[in-house]
Amino acid sequence: MGHKKLNNLIYFVLLIELMGCARYSKEEVCAQILESQTLETPQSVAFEEGDWLDPQWWHLFNDEQLTHLIERALVQNPDALSAKARVDRLFAEAGVEKSPLYPQLSFQAFDNYQHLSKDSLDRFPPSLVPAVINQVDLTLNFQWEIDFFGRIRHTYQAALNEAFAAIADQALTDLMITTLLTATYFDLKWGLIQQKMTRALIDIRQNYASLIELRVKSGLSDEIDLAESLIPLNDYKRQMARVKEGIALSTYQLRTLAGVGPEGDLPISRPEAAFNEPFPIPSDLSSGLISRRPDIQAKIWAMESAYESVQAAEAAFYPTVNLLALGGLETLSWNKLFSADSFKGALNPILNLPIFTGGRLRSSLSAKAATFEEALFEYNQMILQSAKEVASSLTTVSSLVDRETIQAQNVQDSLKEFELRSLREESGIDSRLELLLSAENAILEQLTYFELNYMRQEALVTLIKALGGGYGSTCEQQ
Questions:
Q1: Which is the CATH superfamily of the domain at 2-477?
Q2: pLDDT (tens digit, 9 = 90+) per residue, 315-339?
Q3: pTM score
């Protein structure tokens, strides 16, 4: 849909410019639609050439629990259900706007029973009106506004395009839910790693403080050394409290996104999700991004809807032609209802030409044109923002891969140092305290590595969101 619709809109923008510049003469602003922005993939081992994402992109992380949570969220999350209900509502409302295109037929039946007073004017002598009147009426009414100038068609198409925009908004809502859930899932994974390694750091610092305490008793250290040894221990304990809070909050968030509530019955085990391979980047990244992001597609449909509304506002200047007709039976006696004398009928063609409306039609047209320009400028901003998001995500992922590679070497060096310290401690060259400090440094280096890995996974989720999360295949089906 993307490029064809966009070409139609570009043509319409030229018309808007011809009649719209006068309205914006002071600011000298005319509506101009932006083309796709140039995006280049950084030369990095973090990426490889590939296809656009699959709609179920979360399978990249190879975690069945994550897949289960996302699939559950897509069918139970209130935001997802609300977006779906909005689509259903807008399509139903579009059907309401479509109905005047067809002839309207209705049936009316009534029985009007009256008992007239003898002193009423109707029965004043020598009137032949009886005292009791029973008027029976069966009428078939026909009404049709013949849409010569397309006002109804354009109004219906505007409503229909708004419903299509809602479909794209629904895909955007699903993307927001799935990416937020995945990012929270990595938050939980990182929190559990922190908890495990912080517990190891606490053990090391407790052993270190115990050794210092023994040295104080032996007169080899003083109370200042003991107090200094307790500072890192207390810092790690405070860090552990923050980590436990983060784990609980991440668990609550995951359950809420899955639609069961923070304390819902949804057991979550230790996450195993990871993606440590080069990320596939499509070769047509710049040109294909417009049709692959649901927010951009929603805005294109919104412009289409605004365009149709302008056409409908223009058609309102032209005459409307209504064809009214009726046929039926009417009698004052039930036994004569189906006789030929009871037949009635009428045919009323109506032509209505607006001549003076107090500026209502022109103001309506100006408002619709301004709405179109507003949607267009929002689209332009979205094009710039989407290009910026993709470029930023690509740079971030590339940088984190480089930093993670360097940090992996630091981890190896720290482990090697620890092994050497262990040998020196066994040989009596180094003290137990130095070995504990070396172990602490090795754990801190590993913690930094895992943090960088966590940040890269989060950046990949952000990149997936910036690329549209596999929306392209859904768009093609539309």
A1: Outer membrane efflux proteins (OEP) (1.20.1600.10)
A2: 999 999 999 999 888 887 777 788 8
A3: 0.86
